[in-house]
Design brief:
The complex is a heterodimer. By secondary structure, chain A is of the alpha/beta class. Chain A folds into two domains: about 15-245, 2-enoyl-CoA Hydratase, Chain A, domain 1; about 265-510, Alpha-Beta Complex (2-enoyl-CoA Hydratase, Chain A, domain 1), CATH 3.90.226. The radius of gyration of chain A is 24 Å and the shape is globular. Chain A starts with a helix and ends in a 14-residue tail after the last helix. The interface of A and B includes residues 175, 207, 228 and 550 of A.
């Protein structure tokens, strides 16, 4: 055993891949009945992402959630006909036991946090599907739903619980593990379901949970269904939700084929994105390429292009690159965004998407871009945008500049170069189509509480804005000229790499989200911060901590000081 | 109107002094009686049954015999006498005085333990409710009813604890215990084995031997609890449980005896055509009931069981007689696991293997019963021996839930399992044959042809005694 552990420690950890396909699912079954899809959880105990734990009782690790994420994405793009998705379990008497505790116990802190972030994004994605894609998620809890299992249900729009005298919903994290429910459970209880905070307090300290009538009375679930009527009633409700959906019953979906992606040493090359890692500087440069042609002539042509339509290909590539870098490149602390290509094509694509929002696919692509940009906002990496001649930070791609913690724009051109000065361009898409987790557009966040300044920006839509003007409008941070550029950029990056990564993460997360709170922002901000603090504390993670001792049968010892 | 609680509900918990408990039981008792009338033994409300009633915990108090109509049975509440100065015998609290109130910290865990145990008691009554119609003799019928009322009393014992110590939640759980029903499509019993029908008397005796024995081991480990009212309640229940073991063991033994007589008299192994149950069929029933009962002990590696132990809530069998530190911080226990397609014992931390240890104690105990049955076979000079199947055989829960294993412990493919299982487990034909034997015999002193009469009757009465009057 020690010998084995030693070899594992020295060899590089296997890359966690976020690409999968229903044909390869180990843990979920995706089935269809007209406008109703069923997403059935049937976790294979031994198909774990890492050794050292088994996924009993439909508990999950990142591998299980990667499949869930894939299924949700495919339901949106490949199944326009589906208006309702039923989430349920294939295991008798067990719906889902939540995140696997032994997996958490064996994981590094960074992996735990990353895992929580991804699972949170996936559950937010479920809510986004319900609310904006009108693919309503219905949770059919046909057994015990504990912790993350119940949190998965909370992300759904409608929760049905089997009334078999035994099955409960519960959030036992605090009493059993001395941690918090990590995927939005606390926030969704009081913010989304309006469960009274005093009742929520009781619920979250009662390890065995609540069943039956009290679960309905307290709004923990929406409907309690007798065991013999369960399947029938679920089917009925699902059908009713599907009928109300505006998703086109007879449209044909587009296939999300294998992602064009090549790993070449420290380079990852996608069709429209390239990632280059500089390990010495803890830096990843993410270069986005503009489309090489104007958008298709009409909606039909867009459907014909399918997954190769530029903004969709871009969203998929960026999405994959982000989760890959977050998970597999933890030491790469700074992400630099660059763009290259024809800005006019980018703007034309923006217009095309906004003009055709009535089409389900255009709507889906916009929503996917929104979610992908949100992933960037909540990534614990320093974000820097570099705007140089030949770049195309326009409209959709300008979001990368406004999202960044800092941006540098070359003022003028490089000596001797035959090029146009760098310019940025606003488009209508920057004014609300791609909101952050706090509900504001990135521009509105930048001009927080200053409506006049935001209004002034609206007037600049479509125009090429060069460095000094961009600085004056508040679109970029600094505008060094040719002589200063190299040094300024180098210093910014080197300095960044010298700071404490923890300090940076906390500072960036605190500065990025000016403005109001939403359920999502609370989940990422408040809940995650508390959780990550608790995860580090001896009461959870110490030798005598509850998380550490869970499964051994030994009793945790708590430091009784309130902090 | 003043109710004489001590008369209606014999008890040693000072029920007549405790208003909270009276209020709780007043509400629960009518629901219990309704449950008994609806789901207790079918069509028996007017029978006078020669039953034993416990009226005190004194040596002569637990066995008072007389004719009783079952709905009028005095289901009492008894706790074994407290042991002066008893301390918690195991876990982190070892050596501290036992708790007479529920510690807040362990409230949920204790309630879960009590509810899970309590749920099995009325379940058994529900499973057996039709058996009275096919009894092999009045003696056996009376024993069935005795067990039924005692399962009912054991339900009372758990309900008492819920009412007395767990407030509103406890009352709700007590109600739920009467709402879940064995095999119910809406609200089944908590544990799978208690949702199966007990279809015939052979199954009943096997159930009483194997499945009730699980109950004995669960009760014995709860009798070690640091929560003294639970420990004392279970201690007293064990005296009754011992009788249940006797009914099961002697029942099977009399069937074996009858089979051997027929084999001897007709010089054949094929006793079916003479109305007996052949030894090979009995072996199949042993295989079935043993394996499903093993599932009741839960996962081989169990965090819950470990927590219960550390918390001082549920100990090991005969905890105080075990010579170790009773904390299990560093001890190991060999747990059977599947390694490279073979089943081998692997040392695991003893704390998380508490279930497995209890399962081992149970297996040893079952083997002792089999030895006694084998002695009967030997006494007829017959060359046949019952054997317990391997612990991994026919399991649904735990490490072996997903693999197919022969009675000898060899791992086989699903295909081989499907082909061979008829040789190891009762087939539809076997069950059909047993069903043909299930003809009621209710004349005093008479007995069905597939089972031998008992060597003696109840409470010194002869076998011919009219143990049940049908009125």
């Amino acid at each position: 055993m020690p010998a084995e552990a030693a070899t594992q420690a020295t060899s590089a950890p296997a890359r966690i891949d976020f690409q999968t396909h229903p044909d390869r699912y180990r843990h979920w079954k995706l089935t269809f009945d007209g406008p109703v899809a069923r997403l059935t959880m049937d976790v294979s105990e031994d198909a774990t992402l890492k050794p050292g734990y088994t996924l009993k009782l439909n508990s999950y690790d990142l591998g299980v959630d990667i499949e869930l994420y894939d299924a949700i994405q495919r339901l949106r793009f490949e199944h326009p006909e589906v208006g309702c998705v039923v989430v349920t379990s294939a295991k008798p008497r067990v719906f889902c036991a939540g995140a696997n505790i032994n997996m958490l116990g064996k994981s590094t802190h960074a992996h735990k946090v990353n895992f929580c972030k991804f699972t949170n994004e996936t559950r937010n994605g479920i809510e986004d599907a319900t609310e904006n894609s009108h693919q309503v998620y219905l949770c059919a809890i046909n057994g015990t739903a504990a912790g993350g299992g119940y949190e998965l249900a909370l992300a759904c729009d409608y929760i049905m619980l089997i009334d078999d005298g035994s099955s409960t919903v519960s959030l036992p994290e605090l009493p059993l593990l001395a941690v918090l429910p990590g995927t939005g459970g606390l926030t969704r209880l009081v913010d989304k379901r309006r469960v009274r905070h005093d009742r929520a307090d009781f619920f979250c300290t009662t390890s065995e949970g609540i069943r039956g009538k009290r679960a309905v009375d307290w709004a923990l679930i929406d409907e309690l269904v007798p065991r013999s009527k369960f399947d029938e009633t679920v089917a009925e409700r699902a059908k009713a939700f599907a009928v109300k959906s505006d998703r086109p019953r007879h449209a044909k979906g587009i296939a999300l084929g294998p992602l064009a992606r090549a790993f070449e040493g420290d380079r990852i090359v996608y069709d429209s994105v390239a990632v280059e890692i500089d390990r010495a500087q803890s830096l990843a440069t993410i270069t986005v390429k503009a489309p090489t042609a104007p958008p298709p002539a009409d909606v039909a042509a867009m459907h014909a292009q399918g997954a190769s339509f530029w903004p969709l290909a871009l969203a998929r590539a960026l999405d994959d690159a982000i989760v890959h870098l977050r998970t597999n490149e933890e030491e790469i602390g700074t992400w630099v965004f660059r763009t290259t290509g024809n800005a006019e094509y980018v703007l034309a694509t923006d217009r095309f998407l906004l003009d055709h929002q009535h089409d389900w696919l255009a709507r889906e692509i916009l929503l996917y871009l929104k979610r992908t940009l949100k992933r960037i906002d909540v990534s614990s990496r320093s974000l820097i945008a570099l705007i140089e001649p030949g770049s195309c930070f326009a409209g959709l791609l300008l979001e990368l500049v406004v999202a960044a913690d800092r941006s540098y724009m070359l003022n003028g051109v490089r000596a001797g170069a035959n090029e146009q000065p760098a310019a940025v361009r606003l488009s209508a898409i920057n004014f609300g189509a791609l909101p952050m987790v706090n509900g504001l557009s990135r521009l509105a966040r930048r001009c927080y509480d200053d409506a006049a300044r935001l209004e002034a920006l609206r007037k600049e839509v479509g125009r090429a804005i060069e460095a000094e003007e961009a600085e004056a409008l508040g679109l970029v941070t600094f505008v060094p000229d040719d002589i200063d550029w190299e040094d300024e950029v180098r210093l910014a990056i080197e300095e960044r790499a010298s700071f404490s990564p923890d300090g940076l993460t906390g500072m960036e997360a605190s500065l990025r989200f000016a403005g109001p709170e939403t359920m999502e922002s609370k989940i990422f901000g408040r809940l995650s911060a508390w959780q990550n603090w608790i995860f580090q504390r001896p009461n959870a993670a110490g030798e005598d901590g509850a998380l550490k001792l869970y499964g051994t049968g030994r009793k945790p010892g708590y430091d009784k000081h309130r902090v | 109107m003043a109710i004489d609680y001590n008369e209606r509900i014999p008890n040693n918990v000072e029920l007549s002094e405790n208003r909270r408990l009276q209020r709780a039981l007043e509400a629960w008792q009518p629901a219990y009686l309704d449950w008994w009338k609806e789901l207790g033994p079918v069509g028996t409300l007017n029978y006078d049954v020669y039953l034993r009633t416990a009226i005190s915990v004194e040596a002569n108090g637990w066995a008072n015999f007389g004719y009783v109509r079952m709905p009028d049975y005095r289901w009492g509440i008894f706790l074994a006498k407290p042991v002066e100065g008893r301390t918690i015998p195991f876990g982190d609290h070892k050596g501290e005085p036992v708790w007479n109130e529920v510690p807040g910290e362990y409230r949920a865990a204790l309630r879960r333990l009590i509810v899970t145990q309590g749920d099995t008691e009325p379940a058994a009554v529900e499973q057996q409710r039709l058996l009275g119609q096919t009894c092999p003799s009045l003696y056996d019928l009376r024993n069935l009813f005795q067990l039924n009322v005692e399962e009912g009393r054991h339900c009372w014992a758990m309900v008492y604890l819920l009412h007395a110590y767990f407030g509103r939640d406890g009352r709700e759980e007590a109600e739920a215990m009467l709402e879940r029903h064995s095999g119910d499509a809406e609200k089944p019993r908590i544990l799978g084995a208690f949702n199966e029908k007990t279809a015939d008397w052979l199954s009943y005796y096997m159930f009483s031997f194997f499945t009730d024995r699980d109950g004995k081991y669960q009760l014995a480990s709860l009798a070690e609890s640091g929560f003294d009212p639970l420990a004392r309640t279970c201690q007293f229940m064990l005296t009754e449980e011992a009788h249940h073991m006797f009914v099961g063991e002697s029942g099977v033994m009399r069937i074996v005896e009858r089979a051997c007589q027929l084999m001897r008299d007709h010089k054949t192994d094929e006793v079916r055509k003479f109305g007996g149950i052949d030894l090979a069929t009995l072996q199949k029933y042993i295989n079935f009931h043993f394996s499903v009962s093993l599932d009741l002990f839960g996962q081989e590696i169990s965090t819950n069981a470990a927590n219960y132990f550390t918390q001082g809530l549920k100990g090991r069998f005969h905890e105080t007689k075990i010579e170790d530190d009773h904390k299990l911080r560093d001890a190991t226990w060999p747990v059977h696991q599947l390694v490279d397609g073979r089943i081998v014992p692997v040392d695991q931390p003893a704390l998380i293997a508490v279930n497995e240890r209890l399962r081992q104690d149970y297996i040893n105990d079952c083997q002792r019963g089999l030895n006694r049955w084998n002695k009967v076979i030997q006494s007829y000079g017959i060359d046949y021996e019952f054997r317990l199947p391997h612990r991994a055989f026919n399991r649904r829960i735990g490490t072996f839930g997903d693999v197919n294993v022969t009675p000898d412990g060899k791992v086989i493919t699903e295909e081989v399992w499907q082909r061979s299982k008829g040789a190891w487990l009762p087939s539809d034909d076997d069950r059909g044959f047993i069903a043909t034997l299930m003809q009621p015999v209710i004349e005093p002193g008479k007995i069905a042809g597939w089972i031998a009469p008992p060597p003696r009757g109840i409470n010194g009465m002869p076998f011919e005694y009219e143990y049940v009057r049908f009125n």
